[in-house]
TrEMBL record, chain A:
It is found in: Membrane. The keyword Protease does not apply. Its main location: membrane. The chain crosses the membrane at residues 35-57, 294-319. Belongs to the CDC50/LEM3 family. Residues 128-152 are annotated as: Disordered. The keyword Transcription does not apply. This is ALA-interacting subunit. Pfam families: CDC50 (PF03381). GO terms for cellular component: endoplasmic reticulum; Golgi apparatus; plasma membrane.
From TrEMBL, chain B:
Signal peptide: none annotated. Mg(2+) binds at residues 425, 427, 869, 873. Its main location: membrane. This is Phospholipid-transporting ATPase. It comes from Tagetes erecta. One of its GO terms (molecular function) is ATPase-coupled intramembrane lipid transporter activity. GO terms for cellular component: plasma membrane. Keywords: ATP-binding, Isopeptide bond, Magnesium, Membrane, Metal-binding, Nucleotide-binding, Translocase, Transmembrane, Transmembrane helix, Ubl conjugation. The keyword Transmembrane helix applies. It catalyses: ATP + H2O + phospholipidSide 1 = ADP + phosphate + phospholipidSide 2. Gene3D superfamilies: Calcium-transporting ATPase, cytoplasmic domain N (3.40.1110.10), Calcium-transporting ATPase, cytoplasmic transduction domain A (2.70.150.10), HAD superfamily/HAD-like (3.40.50.1000).
Length: 339, 1221
């Protein structure tokens, strides 16, 4: 017992190290007026040109947007657009004329834009089978695809690609004319490389797609593997918001300013039922992407706010300076200003 | 010869217990007539085997204080975990995630839960293991046990002991179980026991064996020993025992004096033999052990409320979203041809209410991110690490006992930073319970040059503060420098501490080495020394090695007197029943002469009499009454011609008291033989009389005898404070803490200690609330009435006091406290106590200590800390919000019950002011940040959901969410919780006022919490809407691709990660490499994860496949938007802290700046001045003492300079002591 006590002290003494004694060298920055005014000014100085740069980039993007869902609805169907869109016999061709405001240099991207379309609805998002898309052997993996999973109940075999997402494929088509001359639309390479290579199998062919019951959206070419059906791939990248734009194709020739182009639209896609809008958009893109004034404006706004805050601080500081480390600001001195 | 020796011993042992002057115990020789339930224990002594099987199978001596064992661990620990509301919620969410309503895959709900709960359980397991090891340490202690019937004793571990075993316990060993005391190395069968572990009392207690077992005094005699004990069942009552001992077909009654309790210690006795009656958990001490209540800190309790707030928020937004979902499903979904209605499932427009309801569950799971799952586990981890730092603090390591500080529970760390009231035990906590003879006054002349600790400390404090105060003085226009210096007590330098004699710190050559014989009053001095050596009840013990005597005295004061007498040359060496022998050595070179004094009577000390006397006859036949006692008592009993030195002595006594010393006055009376013998006849008659009035008769007779005394002098004994106690109390008082002393000591001692540690000082108005002795006979209503009046009067006095510097001290004794703690009076009492600068409760029982603690805790609603060292403090330690035990001393009860154990009271300063302060701020900031980050993240889920038709779709990948709390944002916040320091430890100590940030709860009030939550809300809005607007429709790459959900989600998530990590960098003020590393690590981990996850096969990574490398990293807009969002998120906070710092800085900000600009080095004067000012208004402690003294001096100066000005009210030091009784 005694021996134990005697030997204990040495072993129980905490060993000194800067870590255990919480004395590690540390950087203890102090937020001095100099420091924070500098940082606000720095942010302002950085953000303002960045904002201007973005605005400038955005300004260089030429974008034409044309909403056609209403205009492409014949007047006779104005009260019941759903009959028009669901009927196989109605003429859905629609011609739009657009004027190019500024020169658009190739590549010019063609987008379709849908509004009020909940591609991000949980039921919709889940309704697909990644495995089936990738591998022909997994074509029976359709558990998540209800109700678009198998043809005729279970007898007809699985639908490839299954699920609501594929089933509701956007199927309006656009043809562009300059005068009478067709402008070629390049529909290749509108999807991400990785999707084409790894997520949509080159051996997987559409099967039983849009064959029975309710026909959703577009048809697929059964002779082409999914990896080559880029419009499907683009469509199946579900959008984040109910308003979204998706790439339709690309025009690889420049369009000059003040040129007039005509778009011949096959108005197939039913947005009338849920009151959505359909737009076609032509846009160039540069490093900032598409036209995005908001981005530059945000930068400018933050820069402006920082600038304003910096000025306020400077002014406040001029009128009511507090020298750093002034002991009169300590609470015990402030509470008793007697001296 | 042998018989003679035995007789001598018999006398001696009965002398020590003063059997000689007490009437013989009226022993009941009848065995107890008990039966029935409660008295069923049957112990067969020395018959191993009998107690191994039923019906006499009792529990073994194995003790276990562990919470779990191998089997119960899993269910019990799991139960503990899921008692937390948040964990239960997550369990429910995990269970529901297996159903189709879940918005996430099950693994992303279950994995974090398993991780979090697993970690907490691992912690429990480790703690349990430590407890087990501690138990085993005790269980494996060895004791000599009689084996078989061979008469041989072998060493066995305690746990192997069984009921009925005969054990032999040697000197200074603990008793392994509750034993029946059979015999000891003293032939008369007594032994001395120290029960410090049980009741905290340090004096020795005598136990006495039955006479019939006396012959069993060697190993061999147990060969054939057989006996039976029938006694009460195990119970927690330490002071009672009922039982019969059957031996040789005879029954003998047993009482508590034959019982040796487990965990008490054998002292001054070679060995004892005993039989185990109660073992293990049956023993009284274990029965007494109460389950230590689990305590939760204020911050944690507030955090619970916060969690409820968040739950409300969660339910609210879930309701919003489910109502939204129901409406969308009912009215809009039928139009969404691309989402055909699902007639069985959740998306049925015709049963929208049902859909809405099931969506409520989905939403509750989805928004679970508002409640940080990893909060508890992070806090636990942080607290364990903080506790580790406390344990490792080298400044809280006591070299003497080799004990480091120990955080026994880690969940109260931050509570240390919020303490408002400290309730302290005295003996062993504030004092070492060791007395030093320091000064004396003989015949009106003071002797003893050494200063008391109080004086020394006061002197140094004044010298230090003079500087600053001089400054103030010069403004008053008075030249006060020299005057103050005069007041400074001279500090003896170079006092050799070598050859220190324990109990004797006296230094004065006039008395030492026989020099006293040359003093003018040598006769009186001689008498003084004789009183020292004769007037006591101690017994001498020859130390064989040194040849000097040690004394076993009833109180440490007496021990100090005897040591002093020895050093002066009056060595008390022998005591018989009727005589005391003293070796007197008047001249150092001479051989001592042994003088025998006939001991005629001892008039005992009682707390009521406050004096004791002996009547002795010296070798000349002169009968003397020698008396020592409290000065007030002695002075009123002096004869007319005995008052020669009264004034001088009184003056000295005042000085001694001021120096924090315990004083006693000495007096004598010469008695005529006839006078004595007539008195003695009456006294003897009274003593032998039997009846209720015996005590009062004796007292009356003593009273008659102890009068007409002649004053000789007075002594001043220093109750050695523990090292650094006054300084520590001073600092704690400056930190704004209130200190209450709760002591079992008598009122005078407590007051003395109060003075010694500056809780009391001259000039403080003492409010003594007591019940007078003669009131004992009154009915309790009368007493209560009286106490109530005292309290009301005192309160009035306090309220009417105009002088802002007036300080009050409340002193209350235990008996009065019983009444004061009753429901109808306790709040009055508490209010009075709160108004007083210091509170001292004397003569309080352990239970009362706990009650007072509870009163303070519940009455003030503030955090209390109780500190103590003994078992009598256990109740208080458990009751207080934080219990601190003094470790390193032998008693472990207090430590076992405590939350923190420190070796010395003075470490409390560092524990509270440094660790408490840090831990509080760390935890507070950590929790605030936790809620901030989860709100910032969780709400983005809600906004997004609103854009998905409230369908419950999340924009983030499951894995992002899973990693968010567990990996990506957890490490920096843990670093904040473990390593953050607003100011360094030295500054914490130098500026005790900083501590008040904790008790005022500046860092975890609702204002701050909601500020952080608002910040989270803002951040979520910025992250979501900026990103959505930037990305929703436009291409984000130069080759025209638009952003899909995965891209938007990943960008938003990256922004969240950046924002919250920048935020924590702004929150921290102390960056070691660890913080730098962890913040960087969190961001880098996110990218590493993103890259690796993107590289997995698309089957596993889904939409995230290749997202970073292919889609995001080449897009400048991705990087720019991170910059934009991260800056925008942190701007308001940056502006806020900038504004706060520039125009409304907190104390630690200013101090940080002073340090940063090295102003403390440049302007030392300012630095020192601020250090001395950095304290709370306090009326206790040295500084307050010095202040009071300076005020007093100032006042005197004013009077001097303005002679003609009208006289003001009396100066503080001359204020009479107000005693409202």
């Amino acid at each position: 017992m005694d021996e134990a006590l005697r030997t204990k002290p040495s072993s129980r003494k905490p060993k000194y190290s800067r870590f255990t004694q919480q004395e590690l060298p540390a950087w203890k920055p102090i937020l001095t007026p100099k420091w924070f005014i500098t940082s606000f000014v720095t942010i302002a100085i950085l953000f303002t040109p960045a904002g201007l740069l973005c605005l400038w980039a955005s300004e260089h993007v030429v974008e034409i947007v044309d909403r056609y869902d209403d205009d492409c609805l014949p007047d006779s169907y104005a009260t019941n657009p759903e009959t028009f869109i669901q009927s196989k016999n109605t003429n859905k061709t629609c011609v739009r004329t657009l004027k190019i405001p500024r020169k658009m240099t190739a590549p010019i991207f063609i987008y379709y834009q849908l509004d009020n379309f909940y591609q991000n609805h949980r039921r919709y998002v889940k309704s697909r089978s990644e495995k089936q898309l990738r591998d022909p052997d997994d074509e029976d993996e359709t558990d998540d695809c209800k109700p678009i999973e198998n043809l005729n109940g279970n007898e007809g075999g699985p639908i490839v690609p299954c699920g609501l997402v594929a089933w509701s494929l956007f199927n309006d088509t656009y043809k562009f004319f300059k005068g009478n001359k067709v402008i070629d639309i390049d529909k290749k390479n509108i999807a991400w490389e990785s999707d084409k290579k790894y997520k949509f199998g080159s051996e997987v062919y559409p099967k039983n797609f849009q064959k029975e019951g309710l026909i959703g959206g577009g048809q697929l070419d059964e002779s082409k593997p999914l990896s080559e059906q880029e419009n499907l791939i683009v469509w199946m990248k579900t959008a984040a918001l109910p308003t979204f734009r998706k790439l339709y194709g690309r025009i690889n020739t420049d369009l000059e300013a003040n040129e007039t182009i005509t778009i011949v639209i096959q108005n197939n896609y039913n947005t009338y039922e849920f009151g959505g809008e359909k737009k076609v958009a032509l846009s160039t893109a540069n490093w900032i992407g598409g036209k995005n004034d908001f981005f530059g404006i945000s930068f400018l706004a933050i820069g402006g706010v920082c600038f304003f805050v910096a000025i306020t601080f400077i002014l406040l500081y001029v009128f009511k300076p507090r020298p750093p480390g002034d002991p009169t600001y300590l609470s015990w001195n402030r509470n008793q200003p007697a001296q | 010869m042998a018989g003679g020796r035995i007789r001598a011993r018999l006398k001696r042992s009965s002398l020590y217990t003063f059997g000689c002057i007490r009437p013989p115990r009226e022993t009941i020789d009848e065995p107890h007539q008990f039966q029935g339930p409660g008295y069923s224990r049957h112990v067969c002594c020395n018959q191993p085997g009998i107690h191994r099987k039923k019906p006499l199978k009792y529990c073994t001596n194995y003790i276990s204080t562990t919470k779990y064992n191998v089997i119960t661990f899993l269910p019990k620990a799991l139960f503990e975990q899921f008692r937390r509301v948040a964990n239960l919620y997550f369990l429910l969410a995990a269970a529901l995630s297996l159903t189709p309503v879940s918005p996430f895959s099950p693994y992303s709900m279950i994995a974090p839960l398993v991780f979090v709960v697993g970690l907490s359980m691992a912690k429990e397991a480790v703690e349990n293991w430590h407890r087990f090891m501690q138990d085993m340490n005790v269980n494996m202690r060895k004791v000599l046990v009689h084996t078989g019937d061979a008469g041989v004793f072998v060493r066995k571990p305690w746990m192997k002991l069984e009921v009925g075993d005969v054990v032999k316990v040697e000197k200074d060993q603990f008793f392994p179980a509750d034993l029946l005391f059979l015999s000891s190395s003293y032939e008369d069968g007594i032994c001395y026991v120290e029960t410090m572990n049980l009741d905290g009392e340090t004096n020795l207690k005598v136990k006495r064996s039955l006479e019939v077992t006396l012959p069993l005094d060697d190993d061999a005699s147990f060969k054939d020993f057989k006996a039976t004990i029938k006694c009460e069942d195990p119970n927690p009552n330490l002071y009672t025992f009922v039982g019969n001992f059957e031996y040789d077909r005879q029954m003998y009654p047993l009482d508590p004096s034959q019982i040796l309790l487990r965990d008490s210690k054998l002292r001054n006795t070679g060995h004892v033999y005993g039989v185990v009656i109660f073992s293990g958990h049956d023993s009284k001490v274990m029965q007494n052990a109460t389950k230590s209540p689990s305590k939760r800190s204020t911050v944690e309790k507030q955090m619970d409320k916060l969690i409820y707030v968040l739950f409300t928020l969660l339910v609210l937004i879930s309701l919003i979203s489910s109502i939204g979902f129901a409406i969308k499903t009912r009215y809009q979904m039928p139009n969404w041809w691309y989402i055909p209605p699902d007639h069985q499932g959740l998306y049925n427009p015709h049963r929208a209410a049902l859909s809405g309801f099931s969506h409520l569950i989905t939403a509750l799971i989805l928004y679970g991110y508002l409640i940080p799952i990893s909060l508890y586990v992070s806090i636990e981890l942080v607290k364990v690490l903080q506790a580790l730092f406390i344990n490792q603090d080298i400044h809280m390591y006591d070299e003497e006992t080799g004990t480091p500080a120990q955080a026994r529970t880690s969940n109260l760390n931050e509570e240390l930073g919020m303490v408002d009231t400290i309730l302290s035990d005295k003996t062993g906590t504030l004092t070492c319970n060791q007395m030093d003879f320091l000064k004396c006054s003989i015949a009106g002349i003071p002797y003893g040059t050494r200063s008391s600790e109080v004086e020394l400390a006061a002197a140094s404090q004044m010298a230090m503060d003079l500087d600053g105060h001089n400054h103030e003085f010069s403004r008053t226009g008075a030249q006060s420098g020299p005057e103050i210096e005069l007041e400074v007590v001279p500090t003896p330098k170079g006092v050799s501490s070598q050859n220190r004699i324990k109990g004797f710190s006296f230094e004065d050559n006039r008395l030492m080495n026989g020099n006293w014989a040359r003093e003018p009053n040598k006769d009186i001095i001689l008498l003084f020394f004789r009183i020292l050596a004769l007037c006591h009840t101690a017994i001498p013990e020859l130390n064989e090695e040194t040849g000097t005597f040690n004394y076993e005295a009833e109180s440490p004061d007496e021990g100090a007197f005897l040591v002093a007498a020895r050093e002066f040359g009056f060595e008390y060496c022998k005591r018989t029943q009727s005589s005391i022998s003293v070796r007197e050595r008047h001249i150092p070179s001479h051989e001592p002469i042994e003088r025998e004094y006939k001991l005629l009577n001892i008039l005992d000390f009682t707390s009521k009499r406050k004096r004791m006397s002996v009547i002795v006859q010296d070798d000349t036949g002169q009968i003397l009454l020698l008396c020592k006692g409290a000065d007030s008592i002695i002075f009123e009993r002096l004869s007319k011609n005995g008052r020669q030195f009264e004034d001088a002595t009184k003056k000295h006594l005042n000085e001694y008291a001021e120096a924090g010393l315990r004083t006693l006055a000495f007096a004598y009376r010469k008695l005529e033989t006839s006078e004595y013998s007539s008195w003695n006849d009456e006294f003897m008659k009274a003593k032998t009389s039997i009846g209720g009035d015996r005590d009062s008769m004796l007292e009356h007779l003593s009273d008659i005898m102890e009068k007409d005394l002649v004053l000789v002098g007075a002594t001043a004994v220093e109750d050695k404070l523990q090292q650094g106690v006054p300084q520590c109390i001073d600092k704690l008082a400056q930190a704004g803490l209130k200190i209450w002393v709760l002591t079992g000591d008598k009122i005078e001692t407590a007051i003395n200690i109060g003075f010694a540690c500056s809780l009391l000082r001259q000039g403080m108005k003492q409010i003594c609330i007591t019940t007078n002795g003669d009131m004992v006979t009154h009915a309790s209503e009368v007493i209560k009435e009286n106490i109530l009046m005292q309290i009301t009067n005192a309160s009035q006095m306090v309220n009417l006091e105009k002088d802002p510097h007036a300080a009050f001290a409340l002193i209350i004794d235990g008996k009065t406290l019983t009444y004061a703690l009753e429901d109808d009076m306790k709040h009055l009492f508490l209010n009075l106590a709160i108004d007083c600068a210091s509170v001292i409760c004397c003569r309080v029982s352990p239970k009362q200590k706990a009650l007072v603690t509870r009163l303070v805790k519940e009455g003030t609603g503030k955090t209390t800390l109780a500190i103590g060292d003994g078992a009598n403090d256990v109740g208080m330690i458990q009751e207080a919000d934080i219990g601190v035990g003094i470790s390193g001393v032998e008693g472990m009860q207090a430590v076992m019950a405590s939350d923190f154990a420190i070796a010395q009271f003075r470490f409390l300063e560092r524990l509270l002011v440094v660790h408490g302060h840090w831990c509080y701020k760390r935890i507070a900031q950590m929790i605030c940040y936790f809620f901030y980050k989860n709100i910032a993240f969780g709400l983005t889920l809600f906004y997004f959901e609103a854009f998905t038709g409230f369908s419950g779709q999340s924009v983030y990948d499951d894995w992002y969410m899973l990693l968010f709390n567990v990996v990506l944002t957890s490490l920096p916040v843990i670093a904040l919780g473990v390593f953050e320091q607003d100011v360094s430890s030295e500054i914490c100590l130098q500026f005790p006022a900083l501590y008040q940030q904790g008790p005022r709860n500046l860092f975890f009030d609702w204002y701050r919490i909601f500020g952080w939550m608002g910040n989270g809300l803002y951040c979520s809005l910025i992250v979501f809407f900026l990103n959505i607007i930037i990305f929703y429709d436009q291409a984000f790459r130069s080759n025209g691709q638009t952003a899909d959900m995965a891209v938007v989600g990943t960008v938003m998530f990256t922004c969240v990660i950046y924002s919250v990590n920048c935020q924590i960098a702004l929150t921290m003020s102390h960056f070691t490499w660890i913080q730098h590393f962890l913040i960087g690590f969190s961001i880098v981990t996110w990218y590493i994860f993103l890259i690796l996850y993107g590289m997995l096969s698309p089957g596993l990574s889904g939409n995230v496949y290749q997202i970073f490398l292919e889609a995001l990293s080449p897009a400048p807009i991705y990087w720019l938007s991170i910059l934009l969002v991260a800056v925008a998120c942190n701007l308001p906070y940056l502006a806020h802290i900038s504004f706060q710092r520039s125009f409304n800085p907190m104390d630690h900000h200013v101090i940080q700046e002073i340090k940063y600009y090295k102003k403390d080095v440049e302007d030392r004067h300012m630095w020192r001045r601020e250090k001395s000012k950095a304290r709370q208004e306090t009326k206790i402690g040295f500084s307050a003492r010095v202040d009071a003294k300076i005020r007093h001096l100032k006042f005197k100066l004013q009077k001097k300079t303005s002679v003609f000005s009208p006289r003001a009210v009396s100066a503080p030091t001359t204020t009479p002591t107000a005693t409202a009784s």
